[in-house]
Amino acid sequence: MAALIFFRFVMFKALILGRFLAGPKGAKPVSISAVMPTYARTDLVFERGQGAMLYTEDGRSFLDFGAGIAVSALGHAHPHLVAALKAQAEKLWHTSNLYRVAGQEKLAARLVANSFADTAFFCNSGAEAMECAIKMARRYHQAQGAKDKYRVITARGAFHGRTLATISAGGQEKHLDGFAPRVDGFDQVPFGNLNETRAAITPQTAAVVVEPIQGEGGVVPADPQYMQGLRAMADEYGLMLIFDEVQTGFGRTGKLFAHEWSGIAPDIMALAKGLGGGFPVGACIASEKAAKFMTPGTHGSTFGGNPLAMAAANAVMDVMLEPRFLEHVNAVAADLWSKLTPVVAKHNRVFECIRGKGLMIGLKCKVPNGDVLARFLNQGLLAVGAGDNVIRLLPPLIITDAEVDAAVGMIDRAAASLAA
Questions:
Q1: Do domains 46-76+324-419 and 92-320 have the same CATH topology?
Q2: pTM exceeds 0.85
Q3: Which one of 144, 183, 305, 384 is least enclosed by Cβ atoms within 10 Å?
Q4: For 322-354, what is each residue's pLDDT tens digit?
Q5: How far is CA 163 from the centre of its chain?
Q6: What residue segments make up the domains of the chain, in order of their start?
Q7: Pick the CATH number of 46-76+324-419 from 3.90.1150.10, 3.30.420.10, 3.40.50.2300, 2.120.10.80
Q8: What are phi and psi of 306, to 5 degrees?
């Protein structure tokens, strides 16, 4: 009897202990984190932001020169964006695209009025905008009977998103590894090389895609003559010219769109990031010629362009279309470049060069860029890594001269500590 009582006691303890170790009811013992570990995240949790500053739960402050990878173009908690989202959230969030959306009509008209485009399709991300652009280019040709025209010429070092099609378009092995086979239809050539681009054209070529500045690839600007040559080549061969301005668009380089510095325009353009100021919004805008075969049923998005997203994007446009907004961007960018250039030259054992345009700046490093980013973090400065051992500085477009001085001082001290 005593043995039976002891056995039952042991089993009861085992049952209780097992339930405790298993966690909540129904939980399974696993080694993977609940948030899928697809990012090597820095151990920081931000609680709030104000302007160009971010604050952690434990009270630390950081000057944000990453802006959520060029997304928070107007900084954090911008009062106009906050007010617009609050007002819309109290009225209507979502209806789907089965009905007209007033905010879409307003935003589309503003994009058309301030760009080369005649029409706009709204989605949720840059990758989706690029998918729309690629589909539009194919349909342009195939709807006219050229059923074999589907191939797209892209540039080495490019980044166009994380879908199967856009990682194939980007062509970088680090993004393609483990996701074979590649989506067919993309031919890569060196970025900036018109001769090789022309040589890659075949009877199956439908379009050429390029970023005016390769962001993920290391903040590599395209030469204006290269951009102009692409336009002339596309016209000569009857190709669609597609610009990926997901990262470069909406004031980042000192013009509303970066390709404007070259004096030419694409047929189709993918946009996102800064358009929503932190709210997920993407857009694919195009000329009437490029989009004329995008008829009902050819493309769609459940969430794309819903009233809440449009309220955010229209609020962003309210600010960016103010007469002196881009004037401020260019002035503060000139200030940052003038102060940062001698610091880069001074620390020539840490930095190789500075490149980019406006407030899209790349610091090419001679030491691992991860080490430099860690020293920046110690100083209280946030930045973003990129390819080619580059650090991206992508501050909110509303930064002040005082914040420029603070950031340059942090970069100087961080580089000095590395050199030592």
A1: no
A2: yes
A3: 144
A4: 999 999 999 999 999 999 999 999 999 999 999
A5: 14
A6: 46-76+324-419, 92-320
A7: 3.90.1150.10
A8: -75, 165
Query: What local confidence, expressed as pLDDT, does residue 3 receive?
Result: 43
Asked if the 92-320 domain carries CATH number 3.40.640.10, the reply is yes
Q: Per residue in 155-184, pLDDT tens?
A: 999 999 999 999 999 999 999 999 999 999
**pLDDT category of residue 53 using cuts at 50, 70 and 90:** very high
Q: Cα(283)–Cα(317) distance, rounded to whole angstroms? A: 13
Give the pLDDT score at 21: 41
Token couple for 56: 């952690």
Phi, psi of 66, rounded to the nearest 5 degrees: -115, -30
pLDDT tens, 214-268?
Answer: 999 999 999 999 999 999 999 999 999 999 999 999 999 999 999 999 999 999 9
Q: Is the pLDDT of residue 19 over 80?
A: no
The three-state DSSP-derived secondary structure of the chain is CHHHHHHHHHHHHHHHHHHHHHCCCCCCCCCCCCCCCCCCCCCCCEEEEEECEEEECCCCEEEECCHHHHCCCCCECCHHHHHHHHHHHCCCCCCCCCCCCHHHHHHHHHHHHCCCCCEEEEECCHHHHHHHHHHHHHHHHHCCCCCCCCEEEEECCCCCCCCHHHHHHHCCHHHHCCCCCCCCCEEEECCCCHHHHHHCCCCCEEEEEECCEECCCCCEECCHHHHHHHHHHHHHHCCEEEEECCCCCCCCCCCCCHHHHHCCCCCEEEECHHHCECECCEEEEECHHHHCCCCCCCCCCCCCCCHHHHHHHHHHHHHHCCCCHHHHHHHHHHHHHHHHHHHHHHCCCCEEEEEEECCEEEEEECCCHHHHHHHHHHHCEECEEECCCEEEECCCCCCCHHHHHHHHHHHHHHHHHHHC
Length of the chain, please?
420
